[in-house]
Specification:
With about 775 residues, the protein is mainly beta. Helices cover about 5% and strands about 35% of the residues. It has three helices and 70 strands. It has a 14-stranded parallel sheet with strand order 1-2-5-25-28-31-34-38-42-45-48-51-54-57, with no helix packed on it. The protein has an eleven-stranded parallel sheet with strand order 3-6-26-29-32-35-39-43-46-49-52, with no helix packed on it. The chain starts with a helix and ends in an 8-residue tail after the last strand.
Length: about 775
Amino acid sequence: MKTKQLLRTIILCILVSIAPGSIFATKYYVSSGSGNDAWSGRLTGPNAKKTDGPFKTLGKVASVIQAGDICFVRGGVYAEILTMSVSGTPSEPITFQNYKAESPVISGADPLTDWHADGNGVYSTAMAWDLDDQNQVFANGVMLTEARWPNNTGTMLQPTRAIMTAGTETTLTDPNLPGDDDFWKDALLWCSGGQQWFCWATRITAYDAKTKTLTFDPEPVGTPRFYSARKGNFYVLMGVRNALDVEGEWWFDRTVKRLYFRPPIGKNPNTLHIEAKRRIQAINLSGCSNVRIIGLHFRAGSILTDDKSSAILLKGLKGEYLGHSFKTDISDIGAVVIRGRNIEVNQCEFAFGSGSLLNVQGEDNRIINCYIHDGDYAAKWKGTVSISGRRHVIAYNTIRHSGRDLVSIGGMSEAIFEYNDLSFAGWLTDDLGMMYGHSTDFQNTVIRYNQVHDNMTKNNGKGIYFDHLSMNAIVYGNIIWNVSKCPIKFNNPSYFNLAFNNTSYNTYEVTTYDHSNRKDLYGMRFYNNIVNKPFILPDNVLFAGNLVSPDPNFVDPEHQRYDLKSTSPAIGIGVPIAGVTSGIKPDVGAIPYGKTWKKVGHDFENPPTVPMWQAPDIAYMNGIRNSCFEYGTEGWDKTGAGKAQTVRGNGWGNQGGLAPGEPTGTCRGELRLGDGIDGVEQTITNLFPNTSYTLSGWVKVSNPDESIRLVVSDFGGTSPEASAESNRTLWTHLIVEFKTGSASTTAKISLQKPSNGSGYVFADNLGLPRLPRGD
């Protein structure tokens, strides 16, 4: 007996060590239709005593669930917020998962009943809550239109809009406006004003029916000459009872808290399932870690995490109508907001929102195999997907349809963005990119193997668009077609960006722009690209192996076959680029001859396998870590007095931005040394022996009695160091040439304030390209 008991104990210990917690984990069940929070939640249906049936609410489960437990969610609607207050562990995650093939829905909306006829085809009912500009109403799960003019016969992204004949900072005129004086008072004006870069909204204060002129509160959106209302601008008026004139529209009277609705002719809203949004979030995982949410649907609400959230899996989710406001960009609360680290969003579909549908921040997150569409219908600055933060992997996603940019990448650093299908940006605005970012040190972010196509804006639509002060981006192996302007654009000043082996079709010249005409894209390389028209870029851009042709013998470009025919002049004319091409004479463009295009976009039936993040190793990429000091002094060792710190730069991310005539831009931060003798240094690895390199950087001093040195040492050359120095109070570009020794693969670079004076010196935008052997 003792032997058998000992054997049982050993087996139990082995099982626990193999799957810690799994033996003792609790399985909970919840059913909104048949559950009861007074029951145990242990079974899918109640037993005869009705004590072991499912819970009714997710909130009850969240109050008792512990690490290692799993909750199976039955089909039905859960009108509540799933809020987690506990976390799992790496070996014992907490799981909420749909039961079998059922599709439970977490809803941010509540039903509206007890409708009464108000005459003229309008019904009304009491609504006790008010979300102000985020009010939203649904019928049978489909979003209804707030009362507006002109009446919308289109879609949210292709709406019917009026066109003004004149405008100022506070007025617009349109001879087609209906109504008597003050007919439109207190309406919301939604307008793509000025250059029509984005849409802003403000309140109407008066209407003069004789002159057909609206007066409105000024909207502080930027320089008036770029944003103020003017002839030809599109606009919509919404949110007043006078506009409630067609079926399917609603209006909320907040003074009496009553909702008015004009249903389809012959329909009584009491026979329809009418809901109004009541909660901003559907799922809140702020502060939580090691949680898995699998197979759930959510509607009329968003998902939140915060900077303390980590190790979360969101898989197989479907979310619709995530956030809604024409007045405010709610992308930070009305989206799937990923702020933490090691969070994976996999095999999900997100659709319909006024701002971003997915907003990725934080560090080390993964967005894999998702379908994300119909976002930013209010045409704010952030796109359907917005990405910032560090070391993310965004792969095999389909992202389509946006009022402005499709993917916003300002603030994205060290990321990998690959195998994505991007299409149909710019439905409501002008001058934008399918991908767009500025004022960012991308820190060798790699954007590769994506197809980017169909920018719908009529004016100045780009493919992959890096605006001013975009540094250290690597763009290769992409196919870009059907954009009205540049396939890939870098506005200056921007430094050490690389564009290799991209293919474009039905696009325009590759150009650059800067308000102060700096014409500085130092360190920029365009190698092995197929472009449709000549480059129009500054003299300091390096070119090699490019083919300029509107159609260099593609197999079938009208049906998106951009692989090469045997007669293509793109074959064998490229230059070798370590990490990108193979062979001594590579083909140019994204698809070498004899190869076919890689699979891109989402595939729920055959999900891809995506490796974890790895730092790239590509020829010519900047070898200096944190070369723009956007992350403080990370990667740098302090020397001298140890007072090195970063201070605010002159970039767009700061108030005021670049001033005309400044020699360069320094993004959001720049390095400051002093007072006294001070400095920073960094060791660079992966250099080749007996190879010439160029180190460069921008520097200035607070007064000419001080100086700043850019130094390279410990490189094994014939001299102990090489350096350049400046005492200019304006930004000055320093360049240091050096050659590694016969056995050297490292070098030390440093910035030094050599004097003991009380002034300060500054530096930014350093570069040391990793050359291929022999360059």
